[in-house]
Amino acid sequence: MKLETFTYKKSSQWSVGTLPALDSNQTVVIVFGAPSFRDTPEPIQALINAYPNSHIIGCSSSGEIFGTEVNDDSLSVSVVRFEHTRIASVTTACSSAQASFAAGKALADQLHKPDLRGVLVLSDGLQVNGSELVRGINSSLPDSVIVTGGLAGDGDRFGNTWILRNGVPESGYITAVGLYGDQVHIGHGSKGGWDTFGPERRVTRSEANRLYELDGKPALELYKKYLGAQAAGLPASALLFPLALRANASDDKSIVRTILAVDEAKQAMVFAGDIPHGYLAQLMKVNFDRLIDGASQAASLAKNQTQDSGPTLSIAISCVGRRLVLGERTDEELEATLNVLPKGTRQIGFYSYGEISPYASGHCDLHNQTMTLTTISEG
Known about the structure:
Structural class: alpha+beta
Strand content: 35-45%
Shape: globular
Largest sheet: 8 strands, antiparallel
Helix content: 10-25%
Distance between the termini: 8 Å
Radius of gyration: 19 Å
Number of domains: 2
């Protein structure tokens, strides 16, 4: 396996003199870029021209990760040419939340083969219901296939996100690449680090990813009460106060959900994933040291499944809410991952509207407000 990573910045252009000559049908090119490249796609087209035989996937971000740096108005790129691993890539349309399950199943059906080992999936971040997407994927693939990825971002604007479709940045699509064979090694880890506060409340009215009532009271009204003056900044300010959900008081598995929009007319909050009726919900707030420690724990989980020899690619997908609360300390969570992963690991990634990874093992889940890592090596 041969691996190169590099960036494109509007101020300084490509970080390499020439694009690495690694084009082949066993090459995967992964691109994470600023939303603005929808309108100025020339650098993306340069990649398409340089790698005509390769599988190219990518999406817009709320900040592009390169090593231990987070950038804006840039592209973060990895080019991986495998020696023994077979590659397949697919893209499917998904123009509404209601179509998300079917889109996920269709995507997985196309990739499903006996020797499929892992899938990296990138989705439109606003039109797709992430929970239904992963449910559709899980309905088709066995839990032995490692599925990771994330929902495209658009900073704190929540306006438009894009996915690369036939080399063109477009909304309303989901794309994925499948890795096949016994010689590809895929590690994964996903951790949060937020603190819960306030009482747990029962979800008494919800529909898919829309939350209406907690304990029989309007959820948006309760949420605004906790936010106080910060409620004027919704939905962006909601990134600072996600919800923790669990099925019941004895359930050790807690998932986190982030708000994408509010519906004042219906007094509803729209989340990146489903809010199941009857679940317990509790507000969360930032703990800076625990967020960074969470990134380190995610790296430890991934390292336990990673080879110590040969090139290793780390794909870091972290929630935009983490970036907003960490501010100038954002680099610390990226440093925490590379401090744990094998020496020489190359890392790219992006800040997202949702992260896809197994909770611990088995089928994938949709997460919010986590650092999710995928490591890929061969041998």
